[in-house]
Design goal:
Blueprint: H1 6-9, E1 35-36, E2 42-43, E3 49-52, H2 53-61, H3 68-75, H4 78-85, H5 89-120, H6 125-133, H7 145-162, H8 166-174
Parallel strand pairs: 1-3
Antiparallel strand pairs: 2-3
């Protein structure tokens, strides 16, 4: 059963309400308000609580970036969600910010798991290499790739020294595995 009822989301004619559902965009009757574009739920006069669309989005879409779970469990319909997601620019902006936050949260959870695997010794070489290479970071702007490679080498060297592996690294260099 979805959080919001069809009677709350559609007019008597069956038209999906969009702007009238939000306190920030409504020019209509306040009795239609059921949500806010703020990050947290908001209490209004009469003790009514308006649910935060960004909070709901992050809650439901961190594990399901397709947004289908949100559409079904909050609004009961993909059609209603689609109408909201394409409605007023203020609503679109709030959804856009929530999408970014959900992406960041998803990556944070993934990083936590990768680091946990590395610490427990369960991570593969590729996983460890991925952490060292940091492909999620935007490449530094440099006209000369040598500067970037030099910095990467310095960071890797510092990490080897910190972990007490510099002797092993030197042995591998002497055996011709590294330069």
């Amino acid at each position: 059963m979805p959080i919001f009822d069809t009677k709350q989301l559609k007019s008597q004619n069956g038209v999906v309400r969009t702007k009238s559902l939000f306190i920030e965009t409504s020019y209509d009757d306040p009795r239609f308000w059921i949500m806010t574009l703020k990050e947290h739920d908001q209490k209004v006069k009469g003790g009514k609580t308006l649910l935060s669309l960004p909070r709901l989005y992050v809650e439901y879409c961190t594990d399901d970036p397709s947004e289908y779970t949100l559409a079904q469990e909050v609004f009961g319909s993909w059609k209603v969600w689609s109408a909201l997601a394409n409605a007023d620019k203020r609503i679109q902006h709030a959804i856009g910010l929530a999408r970014v936050e959900a992406d960041v949260k998803r990556k944070s959870l993934a990083f936590r798991e990768v680091i946990k695997d590395i610490k427990s010794g369960d991570a593969s070489f590729q996983t460890k290499k991925w952490i060292v290479d940091e492909p999620w970071k935007a490449p530094e702007k440099a006209t000369d790739g040598r500067k970037i490679r030099k910095k990467q080498t310095e960071v890797a060297q510092a990490a080897f020294e910190k972990e007490g592996l510099s002797e092993d690294l030197q042995r591998l260099k002497d055996e011709g595995y590294f330069q």
